């Protein structure tokens, strides 16, 4: 299927060492029209700066068991233990997700990284891309981070969201977009504001950002450092639950199999489970080939989880208009329905795309056959 993807390791904590790359599948015939495209890969980085990913995992697991720390005691990664991660502001909990007025919460993440990157570059030496007045620019945004949700904005410009996870959607316009780990968002940008502009990817729940720079042809000078959140981030936010599929020809979905899938766990023990089981100590979920499956995903935790299914696309939100995706970000205490047809035999992983949740149990094998 054509679109924006990325390939990456699934072994241990290798993802947090940068073992990934963008994978762009060109369609036979491009249906979008634009003048140039740029792929932006977002990441969070600690390896070699604040210990290793293994140190970070030990600290997360240790923090819940031993308030005296690990003996290291030097890693500044976990935000102040007096403010429990996940206990930050959870706004909009009273409103139905996806309804007008609902906006996703911004939760303090498990890990605050020393660096946030775009295309491997830090804010001190940002990746720069060119634009030209009058052109339409396509940005392919890929969140390859291990533990960071980003809020992305291009200062001085609006974003027109046209694809998610490689699939066409009904276009949506806004000032900023939210992208969870594993998700891909394609936006079109009308280049009508010459100058040198920051593209920020703010690490959700932190005071830090990743940065890239859009430079119009003929525009000189450099950016001043980003010290506060650009106004765009407080503007209209595009997020997963607002997205509707462009392909609305499908009939209503009648599931053959409906399964509640309970996401549990917490920062204390730092064990994350699906239906109470922590992979690898977990049973496979058996599905017959050809079955139409509905997962009722219930996040019973105070952290968001970008849940990712291998080998299939699913429709989000129990509606023929629901977006076709392979990853869905589920906020604290939220319930999201996903519908999919088990048409790809074999063993497939279903897991949280937060690497440290996956590594401490939030994964199951789905056996189709
Ligand atoms: Cu998770």
Mind sketching the topology for me?
Blueprint: E1 3-8, E2 20-25, E3 36-45, H1 53-65, E4 115-118, E5 127-131, E6 136-143, E7 150-154, E8 159-164, E9 167-174, E10 176-179, E11 184-190, E12 196-203, E13 209-216, E14 237-238, E15 257-265, E16 272-274, E17 285-287, E18 292-299, E19 305-309, E20 314-316, E21 324-325, E22 327-330, E23 335-341, E24 346-352, H2 355-359, E25 363-368
Parallel strand pairs: 3-6, 5-13, 10-14, 15-18, 17-25
Antiparallel strand pairs: 1-2, 3-4, 6-11, 7-10, 7-12, 8-9, 8-11, 12-13, 15-16, 18-23, 19-22, 19-24, 20-21, 20-23, 24-25
The chain binds copper (II) ion (CU).
Quick take:
This protein has 2 helices and 25 strands.
What do you see in this structure?
The chain is mainly beta and 369 residues long. It is 5% helix and 39% strand. The protein folds into 2 domains: 3-48 and 88-242, Immunoglobulin-like, CATH 2.60.40; 257-368, Sandwich (Immunoglobulin-like). The protein has helices at 53-65, 355-359; strands at residues 3-8, 20-25, 36-45, 115-118, 127-131, 136-143, 150-154, 159-164, 167-174, 176-179, 184-190, 196-203, 209-216, 237-238, 257-265, 272-274, 285-287, 292-299, 305-309, 314-316, 324-325, 327-330, 335-341, 346-352, 363-368. It has a 6-stranded mixed β-sheet, with no helix packed on it. The chain has a 6-stranded mixed β-sheet with strand order 5-13-12-7-10-14, with no helix packed on it. Strand 15 (257-265) and strand 16 (272-274) form a beta hairpin. Bound molecules: copper (II) ion (CU). Copper (II) ion binds next to loops. This is Multicopper oxidase family protein. Keywords: Copper, Metal-binding, Oxidoreductase. One of its GO terms (molecular function) is copper ion binding.
